[in-house]
Amino acid sequence: MARSGSLAAWEQRLANQRREDERQAREKRQRDRDAERVRQQDHLASQQQAAEDKTAAAQAQFKALGEVLTSVLPLRPLTFERLLAAPKTPGFDPGPLAAAPPAPEWKDYVPAPLTGLARFFFGGRQARQTAAARARYDAAVAEHQRQEAERRRALAAAKATYDRKVTEERAKAAARNAYVTSRRSAFTAGDPEAVQWFAGCVLRANRYPDGFPREYQVTYDPPARCLSVDLELPPRAVIPAIRSYRYVKTRDAIEPVPRAETEITQAHERLVACVALRALHETFAALPADLVHSVTLTGWVNTIDRATGVPSRPRLLDLRATRPVFASLVLDAVDPAACVAHLAAHAPPALGQSVG
What we know:
Largest sheet: 4 strands, mixed
Oligomer: single chain
Number of helices: 8
Low-confidence stretches: 349-356
Distance between the termini: 111 Å
Mean pLDDT: 87
Shape: flat
Strand order of the largest sheet: 1-2-5-8
Structural class: alpha+beta
Helix content: 40-55%
Order of helices and strands: HHHHHEEEEHEEEEHH
C-alpha cells in the first residue's frame, strides 16, 4: 500500500509538472505573439513614417521650385555697396599658448622638517634629503624656464602668422574695393562694359535651387538703353519625377508615386517663366532707369535631342520688356506663363516674340 501511495504521488507530481510546463509554454507563446505584434506595429509605423518623410522631402523640393520668383521679391536689390569686401579678420586666438604653465614652488619639494629628538638622530639624512630636493627643484625651475621660453617663441610665431594673414586679407579687400569703386565710377558714367559687368553680378548674386544652371551672357546698347540677357534655363529634369511615396504593406516596400508627364510639362513651363520674370525683376530693380529702359531676354536649355541623341540648345524664350510695362505687374499675384505671354504681347512689334 505504501508503494502504491508513493507511485500515485509521483504520478501526481508529474501531472502537476506537465500542467505547469504547458502553462509556461502557453504564456511564452503569448509573450512571443505579443512581442511579434509590437515588432510588426513598430515596423509598420517606421515604414509609414519613412514614406511620409520621403514624401515631405519631395514636396519641399517641388515647393522650392514654385517659389523661385516669389521668394526673391521681398529682397533688396543688389548695390555696389554690397559688392564691397570686408576683410575677414577674426581675433587672434593663441589657444593653449596663451597660458604660461605654473612655475615650480619650493614648498612642493622641501622635505618635512624634523622635530624633537629626530633632529639629533636624523639630522644628516635630513640634510641629504634637502639637498636632493633642492636639486630636483632647480631642475624643475630650469625645465619650466625652457618650456616658457619655447612657449613665448611659439606665441610670437603664431602672432606673426596671424598678423601676416590679416595684412593679406586687408590687402585683398582693399584691392577688391578699389576694383568695385572703379567699376562703379564707370557704371555711373554709362560705360557699356561696366553696365554689363554689374548686370552679371546681379544675375549671379541670388541663389537658385540645386541643379540650376548659372550660365548667362549680357550685352548693353547705350543709345537704346537696352540690356540683352542670354540666359540658360533649367532643364525639364529639375522637376521632381516623384510626386510622393507610399508604403505597400503586402510587399513591405516603400514605392514612389510618379508625377504625371503632363504635370511635369506644366511645372517646367511655369518654372521657365518664373526664372525669366525673376531675371527681369532683379535687373530692373538693380539698374537705374537712366541706364536701362528695356531688357531683352533670350532663354535656352542644354538638352539631348531625343530623335538624334545629339546635344542641342533649343530656345524656349525670346521676349523684350520695357520698364513701365514691367513696373505695372504685381509679380506675387501673376500666373508666370501668362505674364510672360503678356510681356511678349506688349513688346515693340519688331522685337517682341512669344514663348516657344
